[in-house]
Specification:
It contains 6 helices and 2 strands. Helix content is 53%, strand content 10%.
């Protein structure tokens, strides 16, 4: 698959399989989930693509971290960095790590290490 799908070819089918075997789920629930994803994509994607940093909000009272897959073509790192640079927050930090759009899920061990290294110190941890 193309760069946009880095990890998606493994992640998305896995979530479908989990939905099929989840207690209480039926095939109709899986169909509804797929329909919801299609509807969300159709309606939200154009809005998200036309949003400016100001539309997303620029002032935050909490520290802001952007954890970003370094091969994400859906949310390019350059745009994420640009947004982070425009916001006002007590702490701002961009944290890149391996992978594409689903990097948080595909590299969950690295994501946890990054959370511990970057967020925990601000939360009063080590």
């Amino acid at each position: 698959m193309a760069g946009n799908a880095v990890g998606a070819d493994r992640f998305l089918p896995g979530t479908f399989g989990l939905a099929l075997v989840a207690p209480g789920n039926f095939v109709g629930d899986v169909n509804d989930s797929i329909d919801g994803q299609i509807l969300s994509g159709d309606r939200l994607d154009p809005q998200a693509r036309s949003a400016s940093p100001k539309d997303l909000g620029l002032g935050f009272a909490a520290p802001m971290f952007l954890f970003q897959g370094n091969k994400d073509l859906t949310t390019p790192a350059a745009l994420a960095r640009q947004y982070l640079g425009a916001i006002k927050a007590p702490h701002r930090e961009f944290v890149p790590f391996d992978g594409g759009h689903f990097a948080v899920f595909m590299n969950s061990d690295q994501f946890l290490r990054e959370l511990v290294a970057h967020v925990l110190p601000l939360a009063g941890g080590r």
